[in-house]
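step 3/5: co-fold with flavin mononucleotide
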Amino acid sequence: MIKRVCTFYFSATGTTQKVIKRLSHCVAYHLHIPKVTEFNFTLPSSRKEMPIFQEGDLVIAGVPVVAGRVPNLLLKFLDTVQGEGALVVPVVLYGNRNYDDALIEFGQIFEKAGMKIVGGGAFIGEHSFSKILAHGRPDEEDMKIVDEFGEKLAKKCLSEPIHSIKLPGEDPIRFYYQPRDRHGNAIDIRKVKPKTNEKCINCKLCAKVCPMGAIDFEDVSQVTGICIKCCACEKRCPVGAKYFDDENYLYHKTELEEQYAGTRRPAEYYL
Ligand SMILES: Cc1cc2nc3c(=O)[nH]c(=O)nc-3n(C[C@H](O)[C@H](O)[C@H](O)COP(=O)(O)O)c2cc1C
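step 4/5: write tokens
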């Protein structure tokens, strides 16, 4: 019997958070559980300690897709998850290209921790790099699917025995999706960092929202840590002071917009 509904998610620009919060509240409502216990591990300070999940917990877990996989800089943290006997619903958000093996990989992390996968989902979120690729998603239509998923998930959890499921993706998991330059050569954007223009008002919001704690608080034009290109700083800046000027990164962004901005990929869930 489920005693606690928990969220467990990372969300730099808020799309994962939107789906996970709605789904968990919907499931809790149908299970007559009055409150959802929230674990948001987006900021570095929230990854200092791993919550412990146990039998009686239903964990609604979410990460964005990065290069077709679970963000690799989170793996060290995620590999310490503990949850013997808990139920889990891995969910990934992706920017309208593809989620490749992210969902199966996310599921395997929880299986290794002794948790039982009872559902899963792949939803679309506005692409981190862009304001036009999957713009505004997840939107109302996606949220209706989240609600439908939540209701069915709660029903499944009320019927014994609760069967586990297999999530889609290849096993063994494929290598990370590789962006390319205009000549088709693989590019490496790992070292690319955002720049700051003269509009900056030094409000420090960029430093506060950076999930890697990579922006220097004293001088926000300096990126002293690892940048994962989540674009939280660029999208949250109130005056448009953050930008990227790396040629290969900008080419990749435009290519994604040209290839995928016109297609509406459906939200999918598995039970
Ligand atoms: C470095 C990086 C790589 C990404 N790779 C993919 C990808 O392979 N496929 C895709 O469809 N979206 C990809 N995205 C887009 C995000 O998965 C998507 O925008 C997601 O909704 C962001 O979640 P958030 O708002 O919770 O941060 C990538 C984003 C980043 C930052």
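step 5/5: annotate
DSSP finds seven helices and nine strands in the chain.
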